[in-house]
């Protein structure tokens, strides 16, 4: 039952989550505002879920630790999760394992007589802020009431706290004092710090010495047959539906020209945009300061230098695109510029300033006639949606009264159609593009009564499932283009792979890689580097090569030939090398310490023996699930 190695940072979490009624879990709940998250006393005839050696694991311990862990994960992901989700994530098994481990440590402490005194426990309790009064000292009433709110007794809490403190002593004794062997540090530092230089020839279709022959219909048919699974439509539902879509009836909606012109005027700022300038503004405390800065500009100093001198960035002084009115009193001078330049000092709402104009944005005007049809369509679509909304209740009433889809469609002017819908398929009919249709179709079963469903754009649909359509090959004619593309890609990959092998053989015989095309040379990259647009395992394969070795790299969508030029050993001196070794020392020591603690705990569990009552555990889980 040994666990995977953990870092020291994780160890406290393990202790908090794993104790029988963990004192520190309770404190985290109180301080973090988690108190009252369904902490209950299960009671009943069974009080334990098992034992390790002579130490029992109480039902309340398991239920509290499980609830706290679920609450903590819910906070981490930002939404509440149910017990079934927690089980799927393995949270219940993690909690149980932690309880087994901590109970094994408690059992060992009992065996060797390791404990802490009353004074130590009292000191720890007195230092917990949740138990302190307004004046700042320990408050017995606050202590008692806090425990009562969490269904705990003073004796039980103090017993658990004493056990937790003793457990920490044992853990620190077992896992403390480990250091990383020098040979391990050196080995890892050498591995991490090694660098490679390589040359890479990328191949594409243009590099083929012999162009690919055009595929015949017979070739494509053969490819289609050999890969029929790729061209087989998944199981589908044959659905009959009656639909009323805004775009279908919008053209019949009346249009009021006066209303259209009013809408145009309401949106006039979208259609009539005044001339603007891209402007930056650098303000000063006084006119004299601004004038001195302008003189420096005139003498050849840059605007950027003035901005930097004020400890500002160009983003800080950027006004964006502004109209003449946006600039107030400075507007006339800035807009008088016919090319980029600086004017000022000029007044602004933050003091005298220099204004740099960077570009002229010409005025734009879109006349009513140019947008009249678009505005009319907007009005018609809005009217269509309103008309459809008014029909929803009538459609619902007809369906509830037993009317068929055919009758509803005829009565309400809806379109009746049939589609074969397959979840996730890319060849569903256009109606399946609606999210509401997809949601309803995926839930729909044979025999379900149709109901009115409002679509994403305000449309209306009602549907029924007629039958299940088994997986069916899509006719060749409908997928011919896809087949042609796939067959070409397959043939190209094979041809490029073959050519790469030919080039590799030639290089091994003394040819230069560069004689076959443009070669990219990359120097001194380590295992943490990245090479753009290569297979994911490129660096792994590169670092397994020997100097001078040439290899073919071909995976889906990529073909190339790589030569490893040099291997550079990891540096042994300098700040970077020292920092790397220190980091390895610390992290490896943590891993060794965690391994030791995990092995020690597993040995204790094996030696003491473990008994778990699955019926009791299932009972707790069932109550959590309610």
Structural notes for this entry:
With 626 residues, this protein is an alpha+beta fold. It has four domains: 11-178 and 604-625, Triger factor/SurA peptide-binding fold, CATH 1.10.4030; 195-221 and 479-568, Chitinase A, domain 3, CATH 3.10.50; 235-251 and 373-470, Chitinase A, domain 3; 275-362, Chitinase A, domain 3, CATH 3.10.50.40. Helix content is 49%, strand content 17%. It has 24 helices and 19 strands. The chain has a four-stranded antiparallel sheet with strand order 16-3-18-17. A hairpin with a 2-residue loop joins strand 17 (550-555) and strand 18. The longest helix is centred in the last third of the chain and has 34 residues, at 575-608. The protein is extended, with a radius of gyration of 38 Å. The two termini are 30 Å apart. The relative contact order is 0.15. Residues 1-44 have low confidence and may be disordered.
Structure characteristics:
Chitinase A, domain 3, 49% helix, single chain, Triger factor/SurA peptide-binding fold, 24 helices, 19 strands, disordered N terminus, alpha+beta, 626 residues
